[in-house]
Specification:
Layout: E1 12-14, E2 22-26, E3 34-36, E4 43-45, E5 48-51, E6 56-61, E7 67-76, E8 82-88, H1 93-97, E9 99-104, E10 107-113, E11 118-125, E12 131-140, E13 145-150, E14 155-160, E15 171-176, E16 182-191, E17 204-207, E18 212-214, E19 216-221, E20 226-231, E21 234-239, E22 243-247, E23 259-263, E24 268-277, E25 280-284, E26 292-295, E27 299-304, E28 319-323, E29 326-333, E30 335-336, E31 344-347, E32 354-355, E33 362-365, E34 385-389, E35 392-396, E36 414-418, E37 423-431, E38 435-439, E39 447-449, E40 453-457, H2 469-476, E41 477-478, E42 489-493, E43 498-506, E44 510-515, E45 518-523, E46 527-532, E47 537-538, E48 543-544, E49 571-577, E50 583-591, E51 594-599, E52 603-608, E53 612-617, H3 620-625, E54 636-637, E55 670-673, E56 678-680, E57 688-694, H4 699-714, E58 720-727, H5 731-741, E59 746-750, H6 754-758, E60 766-770, E61 776-781, H7 787-800
Parallel strand pairs: 41-54, 57-58, 58-59
Antiparallel strand pairs: 1-22, 2-16, 3-6, 4-5, 5-16, 6-15, 7-12, 7-16, 8-9, 8-15, 9-10, 10-11, 12-13, 13-14, 17-18, 17-22, 19-20, 20-21, 23-24, 23-27, 24-25, 25-26, 28-29, 28-33, 29-31, 30-50, 31-32, 33-53, 34-35, 35-43, 36-37, 36-40, 37-38, 38-39, 40-46, 42-43, 42-46, 43-44, 44-45, 47-48, ...
Helix pairs in contact: 4-7
Length: 839
């Protein structure tokens, strides 16, 4: 409707032109943006994009022309450490030569540098604490020039770095560096005709042809649709339809606006929230007489702005409540467990507290703790590899490890890690089939059942030793033959060796372990830690059992018919102090900052909230524990063999074209050969390559290898080459198999299984045909007595370029029953006697 706007609050008027010049207005959430770096690093809040994760990258191509205007508003809560590049492309090198805004110590600067030229200009202070930068950049990539203006229209700097062969890129890239946090609040990109903006210190009008007329803007004649401008040469009238830009002079005192409403069209209006009723939100904006009514369903966001002098981060004694879809600053207020929770949340500026729901999953953050740097192992360098023999994973190191062996490790303070995430220091006296017996200054409990334990560190100061991901996966892989009798423990020595089996007992001197039905005794002072492998998988089919629960055994002195004590009433919480020693209990009362309750294991508990960093509530406890170091050690059931489809089923799966890799460039292969040298697939353009993924323990592999070798030899004169890709076996073992089969075969060593992973070889044998252009032409899984016929037909079609007949036209020969055996799972999914850890 009609509005009366005070002229003193208007800084500038720009002709809209139906939005033809506008390329983008946002950022409008993450949709359409490309993110790189750590997963889930960028968050969207009220349409803004924010992160506090180092290395988080945001990129988008807007197809901006060579001349464009970029208006952006960026804020930070603690420390700015970012780089914003304008005019970038898909090539990462374009970032280095783009016009960039960067933070150098305490200054925000604009910079451009090429191989032989550079220009830099300081723009404003970039001090820690809540602050922001709101700038306009007029970019001309062809001329190698960028002009920077403040949001008030004042020119700040000009960069000139021309190039002999300028290139135009239409994208933007934002990087948050380590230690910083950033929020992209506004981004407006529009076409620019190359004319410089007017002087913001005095009124001026700019017409469509770029001519700027300076003077005092006196009025606008509504009848004649003309601006009246008083210039040094007298009064001038300019028709409205000719004016593209009007700047009004004068110092504008910005009045505080507690709220900002952002409309779906991109309109942003700040003001005082008056009311919400009848599906509309009403704002009273400074300088506008009439209150503005926004239909709620047309709003993109409503944000509370930071009043002057009020920090937007956490204040002393204050916390931040985080739940799914909500984040509120405030405090927990005094309450006692009753019909509702004893945890009542009182948001900042609120006069009342509200009880949290009984089943809420939430986190209260009192202190933002920076991530810990990766542990550096000074005394024990990371090993170059692992050796697997007789069920023990041994770390090979070029140096002799001589870790300390305490004379009596039973007197050493151990750390018991519970499945809830709690950590209890104490001395472990013994362990039996029921659990561990120990003493601790933090609890009167002397016994913890196995079902509650996640890990025990007998030597908490034992140095960490890195394990490659593939080796860890193999160590945790559970063969199909062991599903009904899985191992229950992983024992790590002080030198980094791992033994997998069943820990039967432990005393002050030794551990008794069952490995493949044999009992072994290990000295206790050689063991650094023990990890529990809980049987929470339905091991019959290898899939997680969502209904499975820990097998909690009754305490020895508890009678079977004893009446269970009443359940503890309250809200389950977990406190996380700065030393990360978590404590879980059921809270029933909050008095001041002291939260009290009871733990079934530890008894009465009291925690001063001023002494902790975070408070986890409800299911958030399990979610937090899942990210702890020892909770990531879980058995991985081996996959079952793939059953090949019946021939002639009409689904096209027998012609080798069903894989999503078919028709795409073949994944890279660069591997050592068993007889020396290297095989690089990129060097084989013009040849047809057959990759045969196999292992010596795979029966179907050994059945089809002679067939593949024979068929490949028939086409050798047509540049067809066969390369066997062996999965994670030693050269001596491979040579022995080739001698037994009497095959002269080029074999590449996929020692870490990476190439098999690229080709999706979840079951073997797998045979891949790569055409002369380096694309995957066929991919077969499995084999059989007649696989040579199938491979021969496929090779003829690939060589001639002939398309195979549709699978629906294929008619099975009833006289030839299918004898194709099932494919076999490779060692990354199913460890065999030669490669698997101890059962």
């Amino acid at each position: 409707g009609k509005l009366h706007v005070d002229r003193s609050v208007i800084r500038r008027m720009i002709r809209w032109n139906g939005g033809d010049d506008l390329l983008f207005f946002g950022p409008n959430g993450l949709q359409g943006w490309q993110t790189e770096g750590p997963a889930n690093a960028w968050q969207q809040e009220s349409g803004h994009l924010s992160t506090n994760v180092g290395g988080a990258i945001l990129r988008r191509d807007f197809a901006a022309p060579a001349k464009a205007c970029f208006e952006f508003e960026i804020s930070w809560q603690k420390r700015p450490e970012f780089a914003l590049a304008l005019g970038v492309g898909a090539d990462p090198k374009s970032f280095q030569t783009a016009f960039r805004f960067e933070v150098w110590q305490s200054d925000l600067v604009a910079i451009r540098e090429t191989a032989d030229k550079a220009d830099v200009a300081a723009l404003q202070l970039a001090e820690p604490a809540p602050n922001r930068a709101h700038l306009l950049a007029y970019l001309d990539q062809e001329a190698g020039r960028m002009l920077i203006y403040s949001s008030h229209g004042k020119k700040i700097a000009t960069l000139n770095v021309p190039q002999d062969k300028p290139q135009t890129y239409g994208g933007l890239q934002l990087i948050n560096n380590a230690g910083g946090d950033i929020r992209l609040e506004k981004l407006r990109i529009s076409r620019w005709n190359g004319e410089l903006p007017g002087n913001a210190q005095k009124s001026n009008l700019q017409t469509a042809d770029g001519i700027i007329t300076a003077g005092e803007l006196k009025s606008f004649d509504g009848e004649t649709q003309e601006f009246i401008l008083q210039t040094d040469d007298g009064e001038k009238r300019l028709p409205l339809k000719q004016v593209r830009d009007a700047i009004l002079s004068g110092n504008i005192e910005t009045q505080p606006r507690p709220f900002r409403a952002v409309h779906l069209t991109g309109a942003r209006v700040g003001g005082q929230l008056q009311k919400v009723e009848a599906g509309k939100l009403w704002l009273q904006c400074p300088g506008i007489q009439e209150p503005l009514a926004f239909p709620i369903d047309s709003l993109q966001s409503l944000a509370g702005l930071n009043p002057a002098g009020v920090p937007s981060g956490l204040t002393r004694g204050e916390g931040r409540l985080e739940t799914a879809g909500a984040m509120l600053h405030g405090n927990l207020s005094d309450a006692t467990e009753g019909e509702t929770s004893c945890l009542h949340w009182k948001p900042r500026h609120s006069t009342v507290g509200t009880p949290l729901a009984k089943n809420v999953s939430a986190k209260v953050v009192y202190r933002d703790v920076p991530p810990k740097p990766a542990a550096q192992n000074q005394a024990y360098p990371a090993p170059p590899g692992l050796r697997v023999r007789r069920g023990v994973v041994t770390i090979r190191s070029p140096v002799q490890l001589t870790p300390p062996h305490p004379a009596n490790s039973s007197n050493t303070t151990a750390m018991v890690h519970l499945r809830s995430g709690d950590t209890l220091p104490g001395q472990i006296t013994s362990m039996d089939e029921e659990g561990i017996h120990f003493t601790s200054s933090t609890t009167t409990t002397k016994f913890i059942p196995h079902a509650q334990i996640q890990a025990v560190e007998l030597m908490p100061n034992a140095p960490p030793i890195a394990i490659p991901r593939t080796k860890k996966d193999r160590l945790l892989t559970l063969p199909r033959m062991d599903r009904n009798d899985p191992p229950t423990h992983l024992i790590r020595s002080v030198t980094g060796d791992y033994l997998r089996g069943r820990l039967l007992s432990m005393d002050k001197d030794s551990l008794t372990i069952e490995v493949r039905l044999d009992q072994r005794t290990v000295k206790r002072n050689t063991v650094a830690r023990i990890i529990w492998l809980h049987p929470e998988l339905n091991l019959k089919d290898g899939q997680p059992d969502e209904d499975a629960k820990p097998d909690v055994k009754p305490e020895p002195d508890k009678k079977p018919d004893a009446v269970a004590p009443p359940a503890i009433v309250g809200t389950r919480v977990q406190t996380i102090p700065s030393d990360s020693n978590r404590l879980t209990f059921v809270a029933d009362k909050l008095t001041g900052t002291v939260l009290s309750g009871r733990s079934e294991l530890l008894g009465e508990c009291k925690v001063d909230l001023k002494q902790i960093d975070q408070l986890l509530i409800g299911p958030a406890i399990e979610a937090g524990a899942a990210n702890l170091a020892f909770h990531g050690w879980k058995l991985i059931p081996a996959l079952d063999p793939l059953e090949p489809p019946e021939p002639g089923s009409g689904d096209g799966s027998q012609d080798g074209r069903e894989s999503p890799l078919v028709g795409k460039p073949a994944p890279a292969v660069t591997l050592d050969l068993v007889d020396g040298g290297k095989f690089n697939l990129a060097d084989q353009k013009g040849n047809i390559i057959i990759l045969d993924f196999w292992a010596s323990w795979c029966g179907p592999c050994l059945q089809v290898m002679p067939q593949i070798h024979e068929v490949a030899g028939e086409f050798a004169d047509q540049k067809v080459q066969l390369v066997g890709v062996n999965l994670q076996e030693t050269p001596d073992r491979i040579k022995g198999v080739l001698e037994r089969l009497k095959l002269e075969l080029k074999v590449a060593l996929d020692s870490d299984g990476l190439v098999a992973e690229r080709y999706g070889a979840t079951a073997i044998p797998q045979t891949v045909i790569i055409d002369r252009d380096g694309k995957v032409a066929r991919l077969f899984v499995g084999g059989g007595a007649r696989f040579d016929e199938q491979l021969r037909t496929a090779l003829k079609q690939v060589i001639s370029g002939e398309e195979p007949p549709a699978a629906a036209d294929a008619t099975p020969d009833p006289a030839k029953p299918d004898t194709t055996p099932p494919a076999t799972t490779p060692p990354a999914a199913a460890a065999q006697p030669e490669t698997k850890p101890a059962a």
